[in-house]
Every structure is written in structure tokens, then in C-alpha cells.
Amino acid sequence: MKNLLKTTAAALALSIGAQAAHAEGQVVLYHWFEYIPQELLDKFTAETGIDVVMDTFDSNESLLASLKAGGIGTYDLAVPGDYMVKIMAGEGMLDTIAEGELANAGNIAEEWADPSFDPGRASSIPYQWGSTSFMVNRDTYQGDINTTDIIFNPPAELAGKINILDSQGEVMLLASLHLDVPQCTQDRDQLQALNDLLQASKENWVSFNSDTAKDVLVSGDAAAGMIWNGFGAKAREEGANVEYAYPSQGLIVWMDNVVLLKDAPNRDNALKFMDFLLEPENMGAVTNFARYKSGVKGAEDHIDEVLKTMPEQNPPEGINTVFVEVCDQETQKVYDQIWTNLKK
Amino acid sequence: MARRTHDIRRYPGFLPMTILCLTLLYAPLIVVTVYSFNASNSITNWEGVSLRWYVDVFTGVEADKYKRAAWNSFTIALIAATTATTIATLAATGMIRSGTFRLRTLSFGLISLPLMVPEIVTAVATLIFFNSIGFVRGYTTILLAHIAFCIPFAYMPISARMQGIEDSYEQAAMDLYATRRQAFTKILLPLMMPGIISGFLLAFIISLDDFIITNFVKGAGVETLPTAIFGAVKQGIKPNIMAISTMLLAVSVVMVTISYFISKSDNAK
Amino acid sequence: MAAGAASGGSARSDTYKEARTWLLLPAWAVLTILVLAPVAMMLVYSFLTKEFRGGVIWEFSLAAYDQFFCNRGLFGDEPCAIEWTYINIFWRSIWQAGAATILSLVIGFPTAYFIATRPERVRPLWVFLITIPYWVNLLIRTVSMKFVLRDQGPLNDLLLATGLIDDPLRIVNTNFAVQLGLFYSYLPFMVLPIYASVERYNFTLSEAAADLYASKWTTLRRVLLPAVKPGVIAGCILVFVPSLGSFLAPDLLGGAKNFMIGSLIEEQFKGNAGNWPFGAASAMILLTMVLIILLILARQQARAQKGAG
C292 — contact with chain B (CB < 8 Å)? Predict the structure, then answer.
């Protein structure tokens, strides 16, 4: 018994020691999965001596849910998409970056320096931006893919083999584009139509997964699937004969941002990490890894040539692009109900 | 007569069923073990035998993450199993060596509660509990949750063993003027050792394997091996995951084998 | 079931009677604080109000249970009609867990019987063989299962190569995949209790039946099965209950259309929904269901024992 107790005490001391070692000089990052190269995190640690601890999430909504569930005060930084930055700011979950706190703030590209979702970049810096659409396996289906019919009214070859992103904002927007109804519509008939559309389409969908969105296309488990453009580019580069669609109804675009969270336990280190990401070379490394576009001036000098010409980065001229909007409470409740009906 | 007994016991088709059962149990594990030695980058194609994914686990870009997760897993399992075994040993003595008492059934119910409540319910309840008392989730919350659900697993082999030990040894010792405490530490505990070791190993493995509860109570950036693996396989199965799985499989097999031989040598005595 | 095995036997001595409270105190304290109190807190949460964007407001509300049982239409303003969504998820879970249990029984019973009728010396080795896979991380087993069953996985490769099929079988993302996953997760729980009862079974009973010209299968059905029924029931519970609340198998093997209770609850806390009171209410309903099942079976077992005694 004595030995058992001794072992316990020793192990306890060890583990507390190990925790204390990490408690000094770390930054806790809540990030999308597969969105930052480990080498870049190692580089930051090598330059500053600060350890990066990272958790991952797979949708803006689950990020919000986790932070609401006691996550505030434990994470320093998170990477929400545009509309989620606005929601989080409205919920008082963001800290303000004071003038001059970020040495590299001037590196933010002009067109992203004062976005409507975070005026004056009060709490955020740009990370990457891209689009959300879908990819189709060209061995399975050779017809026209540039229409949302692929998802909501699929040809026989694709029916029952479609993966959908587990992301409420983007799925609802894509459905709205398909039906040509405004986002966050308050019209009951239109909301009902959205619900009916998703219910009817569900038959043709095989899975709801964001994190496996690439893998199912590469492995052939799905013949078509909603996907983000950079993630889709990776699927194609890994050998899948898939093509990224530019639906004529409209293309969903987004920008992900690194935000400083309220009550960040390592606020100073968090700001250092933000500055680090604003270095063109480092953001270029992110772009090379994630294969989207950055919002940092000069990062384009550090990116792979192929990124500039790849099909996922070059939408046809004149395509209509849309951001996900933040709905009012009434409409959001109906949206949530539609989403619940869909997932049941 | 013996011949007939044999026939009575035998049912045609039961042997093939047993073989089917073992095949179903082992085939996936064997396949994963084999594929963990695959030289290919892709999990689908076989390109010859290689140890590269094992090397990758220890030196690759994610090595630090897995090392940290493994360290958390092992320290949590060690502390949780040790604490749970201690608590379970004391509780078993209280349940089996202290006569009848009113709260006995209730105590037994409490001890086996974690076995009866579905894991997802325990997980949710623990998350809500820590959150509502403002306990920041992290290493400590995982550890506390593990101690709780390890108790019944440690308790089962320990109480089974204790029920098999006559109290005449302790009585004899006390007749020879040993104190109760001495009877406990010098007589009962040594006799209990095989049960205590089994209980410890059982609790250790249960803690090492737990995913659902850990996933709910873990905090920012604190991962155990199962949660780290889950995070990785969510995006598809990768060869390095198969290497880690195979190593965990080896650890489990070694530990079960040890406990098997301990119980066997003990039975032989 | 574990409960029966561990509580068996009466109190054996009262050597440490004076120290009883101190011996039991750590277990009482830890389990009360870390299991009972959380379940009580969960019950409280199921009656709280959900905040619009997640989180809870400390105001009493029946909204979580209302959401579970009442369908008030897309816009939430209709009178209460029966909400089938969650009942269906529960029903599907029961069905999936039931199918997995039957699958385990069909394969597990002959196996357990076969092992129990081996010579005594080699039985522990057989038991050992059955239990090893159980010690392997559940997550790893589920992942292995998925790997084998994939469209381009080894199973399909094998079947295609032998010419048994022309197109790969689609197994992943079906109900059957979930059942296989559950079966694979909990099979040893079925085999072990049945093995224990068959081992204790007195085979002279079968001989007697044979002497009375009962056929083998009649003997199995009318003599052996009733005698080993407690083991079979224990096995079924040990497979059914964890399957019911399982989260890994539906999540990794099930895809979109195979939402089960475990995934429903998980989604309320970790996924998109962020509805804690509703998650707590669903968990309470699951817990109540499981406890009722266990209570009924415990009653039955007590009655059977009384009858036998």
C-alpha cells in the first residue's frame, strides 16, 4: 500500500511539474483542422520560445458552441469565419487589440483592413480566404457540374454518393442560392421551401462530414461532395479525378480570421503569434499548405507558382459571389429547426 | 458412457461458428497491423514492407503531439488506476470484512454505478458538473473523471479475491496479539495481492482506453492518445495512425498476458 | 451481469467492523462527488433555459422536454403534436443495438458453448483468445473495422479478386456497418457470461433428455437453454446497454442517416447545436430507459432465484 501511495505521489509530482513547465510561455490556439503546417508552429516556437498548443474544430458553429461551453478563458486565439467573427463580437467573446499592439498590422492587405464583420480590425487579423462549392468525380459523371442541381437535384450517377459539409451556414446559403431566395429570409413560404428542399435532397446524400470531405473524394467513398476550394485542390493533387464546380447560381466566399479571445490566458504571446502570422513569409507558408489565398501584403511573393493558376483558385469572370450573413434571432431559430430536421 | 457424454455435448456447426467468431474478432486487427508496415503513402496500395510509419510516429512533424498525448495517457492511467485500486481495496475490506450493515446494498449500488450508467451519460453529466462549479477543464478534470469510473473495475477482481480468502488467517494473527492494522497490512494485503494487481491492470487499461468521457472533460490543448487518434482519424485513416494503433495493441496484449499468467500461477498454487 | 457476480456471497467476516466507515468513506466520497452529483446536476440542467447562441440561463423551463416530445412546426407556433424525430432516433438506436445484440448472440452462443465444452485445461486459453481484442482500444477497433469495410478496403479487394462480386459492396455508412461495429465492440461481453453458465451446466440433464429420446436440438432448446438463460440474459444486457448509448460506431461507420442517441447527445455539447438543456434532457431519458431495463431484469432474476431456491 505504501508503495502504491508513493508511486501515486511521484507520478502526481511529475505530471504537475510537466504542466508547470508548459504553463510558462505558451499560446493556446483553437483552429480549424488541417489548416496550419506543424513546421510553421515549430518555427514560431524556435523564434520565440513559446509553445503552441492547438485544438481543432470543424465548423464555425461548433467553435461557437465549444467556446460557449466554458472555453472562454482557456483559449487565447481562435480562427472563425467572417460571419462568426460578427456573432462572437456580438456575444462579447472577443478582446480588443489596441492601436500599436500589433507591430505588423500594416501588413494587412488594404481590401481586408476594414471588413464589415470586424470594422477597423478591432479584434482580428485576416488568415485565409476562399470559396465553398462542391467537387464532382469526373470518372463517375461527365455532364455539366456548374449548377447547384448537382447537390439538390443530382443526376442518377451521383445520387446517393454525395457528402455534405457539416456546416449550417454554408449549407443553408447554398440551398438559398439554389432556390433563389434571399439569405435569412423572413418569408414563411420561402423558409418552408428551404426545409422541404433539404428534406427531399437528404435522400441523395450519403454523409455529413467536414473533416473527411477531402478523404471521401480521394478514396472514392463519395462521388461528389461539398468542399472548400483549397481543401478540394488537395483532393485533386492527391490523385482524385475531381473537378471544382462554379455554380451559376452563385459562389459562396468566406474569410477566416485569427481573433483575440476575451480573457486570453496568454494575451501577450497571442499578440506575438498574430504578428508572426502577419509576416508575409509565414502567411505564404500557410497558403502553400492550405491552398487558399491570404490577406497579407507580400505573401504572394512566397507562394507556389501552381497556386496562381490552379482551377480551384480561378473562378470564371463575372460569377456572383456571396458571403454568409448573420440572421436575426427569429430567423436563426427557424434555420436551427431546419438544420435539426435535416440532421435527424 | 464417456463416449456418449461427448456426443451429447457436441453440436454440428458450433465449431465453424467459433472459427467465424475468432476471424471476425481478429481479422481487422491483423489487417491494420499488417498495413502499419506498408511503405506506401496511401493506405490503399501495398508497396512493400517498411518501418517508416513507426519512425514517423517518433520523429515526424506530429511526433510532439503524440508524445505529449502518450505522456498524458500514461500518467493519467497510472495515477487514476493507483488511486482507484487503493479506494477499491479499502472499500472491498469495508464491504466484505466488516459484517452486515444497513448501507451495504446502497454502497454496492454506488460502487457499481459507473458500470450501469451509459458512458455518454456519465460524460455529459461530468462535463456539466465541472462547468457549473467553474472548474476549468484540463488535465485534472480528466484525471478526476478517470478515478471515478476506474473504481468499479478495480473493485470487481479485488472483491472476488477477498471473498475467496477465509478470515481464519487474520483471526489467527490477532489471536497471536497482532493489531487489526497489522492483520490487515501483514496478512490480508499480501494474500490479496493477485486480486489487487488484476484490479490495477484492469483499471489501468480502462483508463488508457477511455475515449468518450475524456473527450467531454478534456480542456484546451490537453489530449490523451485516444482523443488525439480520434482527431486524426476524423479526417481519414492515415498510415501513422495504424502504426500507433499497432503499438497500443501490443501494449494491451502484453498487459493482458501478464494478468493472465498472474491469475494462472495463482490458480495453480 | 457484473453486479450479480460481485455482490454474490454474504459478508464473510466482521474483522474490521470498527473501521468500516473509514474504509468505505473514500469510495462514497469520490463516487458521490464525481458520479451522483454530476447526474443530479444534469437533471437540473435539463430544466434550464437555453441561451440563444448556446449556454444556459438559470431559469426554470420545460423547453428541453417540450422539444423532445412536441412538434410545434417549423416556426414553433403550432399546438403540440407528437414529435417523432427524437423518438425515431431512440427507436433506431434500440433497433440497431437490438440487431447488434442478436448478431452477437447468434455468433457468441455457439462460441461460448464450444469453449465451455473443451477440456478444462485449455478453456482459459480459449477465453483468453476471445478477450484479447476487447482490450484493444474501442476506437482503434472501430477504425480497423472501417478500414476493412471501406469501398476500396481489403474485404472488397478480396471479394473482387476472388470474383465473388463485380462491384465493391457499399458497407460503410449503412445501418449494417453500425451493427457490425457494435457487434465487434461488445462481442466478448456476450461470450463470457454465456460461457460461465454453460460451464456450470450439469450435462447429465442433457443425457437424461437423450435417454428419453429427445433429439439433440430439442435438448438444446428445452433443457440446455432454460438452464443457461441467466447467462444469455446477462450477455444480452452487456451488449445492448453500451450499444444503446454508443457514439463511436455510428459516428465513424454510420454517416448521415444513422444518427443514434449517442451522436444526438454529443451534438448538443460538442457539435453545431450547442443546446445543453436539450442534451441533458436526452441523456436523462436515456438513463431512465437503461435503469428501467436493468430494474426489470434484476426483478426477474430475483424471482427466478427465489423459484430455484
Answer: no
Per mean pLDDT, which range of A136-145, B259-268, C84-93 is the poorest?
B259-268
**pLDDT at position A150:** 96
Q: What's the complex ipTM? A: 0.84
Q: Is the pLDDT of residue C293 over 90?
A: no
Computed over every residue of chain A, the mean pLDDT equals 90
Residues of chain B found within 8 Å of residue A235, distances taken between Cβ atoms: none
Between strands A251-260 and A242-244, the pairing is unpaired
What average pLDDT does this structure show over C263-287? Answer: 88
Beta bridge partners of A162: A205, A224
Nearest-Cα distance to chain A for B124, in Å, is 12
Q: Identify the helix (H) or strand (E) that includes residue A124.
A: strand A124-137
> Residues for chain B: how many in total?
269
Diameter of chain A measured on Cα atoms: 77
* A79-116 per-residue burial string, b: 16 or more CB within 10 A, e: under 16: bbbbbbbbbbbebebbbebeeeebebbebbbeebbebe
> Do C255 and A206 contact (CB within 8 A), yes or no?
yes
Nearest to A78 by CA among A106, A102, A103, A59: A59
How far is C-alpha B52 from the geometric centre of its chain's CA atoms?
A: 30
Q: Report yes or no: A16 at the C interface, CB cutoff 8 Å.
A: no
Residues 6+ apart with CB under 8 A from B178: B186, B187
C287–B99 C-beta distance less than 8 A: no
pLDDT of residue C5: 39
Direct distance between the N- and C-terminal alpha carbons of chain C, in angstroms, rounded to an integer: 19
pLDDT band at residue B3, thresholds of 50, 70 and 90? Answer: very low
Indicate the average pLDDT of chain B. 86
What pLDDT sits at residue C255?
A: 67
On the question of pLDDT at A5 being above 60, the answer is no
- Between CA C94 and CA C99 the distance in angstroms is 8
Alpha-carbon distances, residue C211 vs A101, A267, A311, B10, C228 (angstroms)? 94, 84, 81, 16, 21
Distance CA B86, CA B147 (A): 11
Choose among B65, B82, B185: nearest Cβ to A8. B82
Q: What SS3 state is found at B225?
A: helix
Q: 3-class DSSP state for residue B195?
A: helix
- DSSP letter string, C43-57: HHHTTSEEPTTSSEE
Helix (H) or strand (E) holding A268: helix A267-277
Mean pLDDT of A31-59: 92
Chain C: closest CA distance from residue A227 (Å): 16
B44 with A219: Cβ contact below 8 A: yes
Is 80 exceeded by the pLDDT of residue C142?
A: yes
How far CA A91 is from CA of A63, C59, C86, in Å, comes to 13, 20, 30
C-alpha cell at A111: 481590401
Which residue of chain A has the CA closest to B227? Answer: A55
Burial class (CB in 10 A: 0-12, 13-18, 19+), B133: exposed
pLDDT of residue C271: 73
Q: Which long-range contacts (CB under 8 A, 24 or more apart) does B179-182 make?
A: B180/C15, B180/C16, B180/C18, B180/C19
Judged by a CB distance cut-off of 8 A, whether residue C272 touches chain A is yes
CA A39 to mean position of chain CA atoms: 20
| Test mutation, B36, B45, B66, B98, chain C, max C CBs within 10 A | B98
Residue C269's Cβ-side half-sphere holds a number of Cα atoms within 13 Å equal to: 29
C-alpha radius of gyration, chain A, whole number: 22
The string of pLDDT tens digits covering residues A192-207 is 999 999 999 998 998 8
Confidence of residue A124 (pLDDT cuts 50, 70, 90): very high
Enumerate helices (H) and strands (E) in chain B, giving the number of each. 13, 0
Number of Cβ within 10 Å of residue C18's Cβ equals 11
